[in-house]
Design a protein that fits this description.
Elements (H helix, E strand, L loop, with lengths): L2 H26 L10 E4 L4 H13 L7 E5 L5 H4 L7 H8 L5 E6 L11 H12 L4 H13 L6 E4 L16 H16 L7 E4 L22 E3 L2 E2 L7 H6 L4 H10 L4 E7 L7 H14 L4 E4 L13 H11 L3
Parallel strand pairs: 1-2, 1-9, 2-3, 3-4, 4-5, 5-6, 6-8, 7-8, 8-9
């Protein structure tokens, strides 16, 4: 082989070796962190909760919070209709970007946290199923449309399988389901609405199996779960595998063709538990819920709660700069 051809071949081999080396380096480089599922946190019910969204994003290295979450008060019916001015700041935040989501928890009954006895709850559920309270939910729908947030996610009658709220299901599941359907129908007839209704029980059996309260696919858009780190001593694997636990939620949603969500989640009975925090974040990375919102106050939270430093570090390191 002539010297000139050897030099040309040598140059080609050098270029080829460099290309192989570069390809190997690219293959070995860590992949950029996948964008997390849309998330936010409950930071406060009022306008201060809106202001804190940007502060939490800054603390997370600029990771964008695409979900805002608030609750209507459940004292009286006028509260459930959306008090004048209460939702304005939330609606303004939502309108700033098209990929944002506003999540609104809506009680199904007034006096919602006043420990109303079962017999009265049963009567109220039957009144609701007969349409007696439709006007209040129609008024709320009209207010949300007027505020130009017609695609709000409505977490209606949350944790209905428990005993805390007047809107609980246990005293009469059939009436509860009929009442849910009345509410959804009343809100959907309002022109311009695009609401999505989130059926969100607490994880596990609680007072009644949450499947006994499911009102049907026609009036449910999302299968949520409020999933705190409880009871004491229960591992994350047990939270997944228990009856009516995280795995059953995912399986149920898939069988009904619905996305999942986690409107409320956080620490609780097991204290500062970074293992729970990491596992819950990994669970959501795997199952890609439509949204999730951490309950960020003590004892559940991280950014606004100094009692959980280990879990705070786990949360921040998992979401920082993503």
């Amino acid at each position: 082989m002539a010297p000139q051809r050897r030099r040309a071949r040598s140059r080609r081999l050098t270029v080829l070796a460099a290309a192989v080396t570069a390809s190997a380096a690219l293959a070995a480089a860590p992949e950029p962190a996948k964008e997390p599922p849309p998330f936010g946190a409950f930071l406060d019910s009022g306008p201060i909760g809106v202001a804190r969204i940007a502060e939490l994003s800054h603390w997370l290295g600029g990771t964008e919070l695409k979900v805002a979450h608030t609750y209507l008060p459940g004292g009286r019916w006028q509260d459930i209709e959306g008090p004048p001015g209460f939702l304005d700041a939330w609606a303004h935040w939502r309108r700033q970007k098209t990929d944002r989501t506003l999540v609104l928890n809506v009680p199904m009954q007034e006096r919602n946290e006043e420990h109303v006895p079962d017999d009265q709850v049963r009567s109220l559920l039957r009144q609701g199923a007969a349409g007696q309270f439709d006007r209040h939910f129609r008024a709320l729908a009209e207010r949300l449309v007027a505020l130009k947030v017609p695609d709000t996610v409505i977490v209606l009658g949350w944790e209905m399988n428990g005993v805390t709220y007047t809107h609980r299901c246990g005293p009469d599941p059939q009436a509860w389901k009929a009442y849910w359907n009345r509410i959804v129908t009343a809100m959907r007839v309002v022109p311009g609405q695009k609401f999505r209704f989130d059926f969100s029980p607490s994880r596990g059996r609680d007072a009644v199996p949450w499947t006994a309260c499911y009102p049907g696919d026609a009036t449910v858009d999302i299968i949520g779960t409020d999933s705190y780190d409880q009871p004491a001593g229960m591992s994350f694997d047990e939270q997944v595998k228990e009856p009516y636990g995280l795995q059953q939620q995912v399986d149920f949603a898939k069988s009904h063709g619905k996305p999942v969500s986690y409107p409320e989640w956080g620490l609780f009975r097991n204290g500062d538990n970074p293992e729970y925090m990491r596992r819950m974040l990994d669970w959501m990375d795997e199952h890609r819920p439509l949204y999730n919102t951490l309950t960020d106050y003590c004892p559940h939270g991280v950014w606004q709660c100094s009692a959980n430093p280990k879990s705070t570090e786990a949360y921040r390191s998992a979401l920082y700069g993503r």
